[in-house]
Amino acid sequence: EDGDALSSEQLRALHGKIDADADGKMSMSEALVFSDDMHRLSVGHEVVEMLTQMDGDQDGRLSLDEIVADAMQAEEVAGDDEAAQAEKRELEQRKFEAADENADRLLDETEMRSFFFPEEGHEVADISARDTLRRRDADRDGALSPDEFWQARGEALHDADIAEFRSFDVDGDGALSLEELKRWETGRYHSVDAMRKLFEVADKDRDAHVTADELDAARAVLLESDEHSHAHVYLAEWAER
């Protein structure tokens, strides 16, 4: 058996945790609530790790300079490209000020959550989405086509890219609006889409619930199918918590 595959016992134990009302059936709402809880837990761990890596003066908080330095390195902004550096710093500063709730010019762990993992509706997500739209909207129509979003530059898109694009094109108009980009910036669409794929495979009787038996029976498809494997990735991560 694949070493990365969850065992039947692991899946059944996880089902019991997600099934909040203990009725033996996991609903979509229960799955999404559990997903959000796991996301918050994961973010907490990631913030602590990021603080350890980025906090140059070891004061337990991040300054704008520390964040900008990390962003420049992560995105490989050329040291001699002054225009690109100024543009990147201006973006990070706007996000920083939106996240810095007490305006002390330093981000604590709670504020770091807002900066790096903004919830839907937070100003940081709005700033990031508007910047993405500005940079990628080649035809200036106020929305992103699949090619613009993936920055394909004339290259053919993979089926997986097209499918992922459609998953967060909520209104199905073939383009991502600013509001849809805001949801994408929060990252939550990934978990929502994963749970939809999970139910698509596991809910055999189409009663909008998944039993432990149904979840166990879907193991092979979740692991082997490219279209559904990201649902297995989420389940595997949750099982480790």
Overview of the molecule:
63% of the residues lie in helices and 2% in strands. The chain is mainly alpha-helical and 241 residues long. The chain starts with 7 loop residues before the first helix and ends with a helix. It has a two-stranded antiparallel sheet with strand order 1-2. The longest helix is centred in the first third of the chain and has 27 residues, at 28-54. The model has no long low-confidence stretch (mean pLDDT 91).
Distance between the termini: 22 Å
Backbone shape? globular
* Main β-sheet, spatial strand arrangement: 1-2
Strand pairing plus helix content: what structural class? mainly alpha
Query: What is the string of helix and strand elements?
Result: HEHHHHHHHHHEHHH
User: Which range best describes the helical content: under 10%, 10-25%, 25-40%, 40-55%, 55-70% or over 70%?
Assistant: 55-70%
Average residue pLDDT: 91
CA-atom Rg in angstroms: 20 Å
Number of strands: 2
Low-pLDDT runs of 5+ residues are: none
